[in-house]
Amino acid sequence: MKFYRDKLMRKHNTLALQARADAFVCVTNDDELLESLGWARTEGVAVVVLGQGSNIVLAGDVQALVVQQAVRGIEVLDTLNSDVILRVAAGENWHELVQWTLQQGYYGLENLALIPGTVGASPIQNIGAYGVELQSVLLQVHARQIADDKPVTLDNAACQFNYRDSIFKRECKDQLVITAIDIQLSRRSSVNISYPALATFFAERPDVEPTPQTVFDAVVSIRRSKLPDPSIEPNVGSFFKNPLLRSEMAALLLAKHPGLPCFSQADGSVKVSAAWMIDQCRWKGHRADDLGVHPQHALVLVNYGSDSGAQLLALASEIVSSVHDAFGVELEVEPRIYGLNP
Ligand code: EPU
What we know:
Layout: E1 4-8, E2 20-27, H1 30-43, E3 47-50, E4 56-58, E5 62-69, E6 74-79, E7 83-89, H2 94-104, E8 128-129, E9 132-133, E10 138-145, E11 151-155, E12 176-186, H3 196-203, H4 212-226, E13 244-245, H5 247-256, E14 262-264, E15 270-272, H6 274-280, E16 287-288, E17 291-293, E18 301-303, H7 309-327, E19 336-338
Helix pairs in contact: 3-4
The structure holds uridine-diphosphate-2(N-acetylglucosaminyl) butyric acid.
């Protein structure tokens, strides 16, 4: 294990933005993690935990020890009648996990195929796509406290999951290094194709039977058709969350803008499509100063060769303002922003 000083970070964020970290270390086991946390305490520097950097914006230099969590391993903890419980280490790649579970005949993750990033990052924003969220399979999150190394375990309820939200973005922000998650999957094949894009995919292909494998293939195909590959066009997926509005507010908005896609939530709120509103404001395909809005999906900002996270945030602010002016709705940035130093 090697500690780097003044580390250039472009390779460690999928937006390929340039910034320096005061220090950087990649940990591949628990002892290395403990040594790194001890080093940060001795040096008196903050700790920033990173997976594959697929949901961060580097707006400037990071005054911290960046700990890249790369501990690997998948363990079958228990096999129940129709279910299996897995412990997956935080540094595993999410999409590789999805593929592996499908090969083993463990079902439940197919709708979450092709989401970039690591397993350790997945509970932070409660990753979700095509009608499934991590919270539906997650049993426990294991972590260490940055302040004193203490191991802690949070069960599903303690994680306080919500749409793109969890306790790890709030009370536990910057307090923990997630080390592993336990998930419960099914050994009986069942599928969820309720999400409109998936339902349409199978409706248009009546000869394709919906199975975990074909749902996986469908999600991969839908994502590839409209979301850019970060290794070719650097991005962090959706740059903004879909706003959750009170139902009265959503009804008023829908009356004015009948095309607005709306999704009623279990708690009575209504999720409205940020992509649609950005699209209506004519941002899709916008490109200037090596930054732009993806031509196939208005929620995705793309770095076509800029170094500057600050400039990217300036573009994001312009988009937020124009959506606010047109719809009276405040968009919230989804990725975590680092390097906004005082
Ligand atoms: N739409 C537009 N213009 C666009 C793109 C989409 O009008 O440029 C409309 C679509 O026609 C559709 C609606 O917006 O009616 C929703 O589009 P989509 O199915 O692509 O989903 P989304 O709400 O834009 C969310 C997630 C994605 C996830 C998809 C599928 C958020 C912030 N994003 O996008 O997650 O893949 O649903 O479940 O919730 C990510 O977080 O990086 C991500 C890609």
